[in-house]
Amino acid sequence: QVQLVESGGGLVQAGGSLRLSCVASGRTFSIYDMGWIRQAPGKEREFVARIGWSGSNTFYANSVKGRFTISKDNAKNTVYLQMNSLKPEDTAVYYCASREGDYDVWDYWGQGTQVTVSS
User: Fold this and answer.
1) pLDDT tens across 34-56, in order?
2) Calpha distance 116→51 (Å, rounded)
3) Which residues of 43-82 are buried (b: 16+ CB within 10 A; e: fewer)?
4) What is the DSSP string of 47-72?
5) Residues sharing a CB contact under 8 Å with residue 14, sequence separation 6 or more, in sequence order
6) Side-chain half-sphere CA neighbours of 92 within 13 A
7) What are the tens digits of pLDDT across the range 8-33?
8) What is the CA radius of gyration of the chain?
9) Is the CB of residue 80 less than 8 Å from the CB of residue 19?
10) Cα dihedral across residues 65, 69, 70, 74: positive or negative
11) Do 110 and 97 meet the contact criterion of CB atoms below 8 Å apart?
């Protein structure tokens, strides 16, 4: 099992910034990569970004490219999502997730953290 705990959500005005954190524990040796997925009210979950467990090989959704940056502190087993130039449409619950291979399903999920961007 892998446990994921997110933090850092909150309320911010449009154009502002937030940084989300996700600490991984447990069977971290089995992790292939980690990602952030968000879900806005009434919408399906949407992939945001992912990063390889070594801290390399990042990938972003087009909707956040150039505004969000995913990074990893290997010593702390922590993945970050720096969100800049936030827009009201970024409002969602943001989930941290991990997977054990390069496939479509995320194996483990955090509890989620709310991000609200006011206009």
Assistant:
1) 999 999 999 999 999 999 999 88
2) 24
3) eeeebbbbbebeeeeeebeeebeeebbbebeeeebbbbbe
4) EEEEEETTS--EEE-TTTTTTEEEEE
5) 86, 87, 88, 117, 118, 119
6) 21
7) 999 999 999 999 999 999 999 999 99
8) 13
9) yes
10) positive
11) yes
Across all residues in the chain, what is the average pLDDT? Answer: 96
Please spell the DSSP secondary structure of 5-52, one letter per residue: EEE--EEEETT--EEEEEEEEESGGG--EEEEEEE-TTS--EEEEEEE
3-state secondary structure of 90: helix
Residue linked to tokens 């006011």 = 118
Q: Give me 83's structure tokens.
A: 């969100």
C-beta of residue 22 within 8 angstroms of C-beta of residue 96: yes
Q: How far apart are CA 114 and CA 95, in angstroms?
A: 9
Q: Record the tokens describing residue 61, joined without a space.
A: 């959704």
Mean pLDDT for 50-79 is: 96
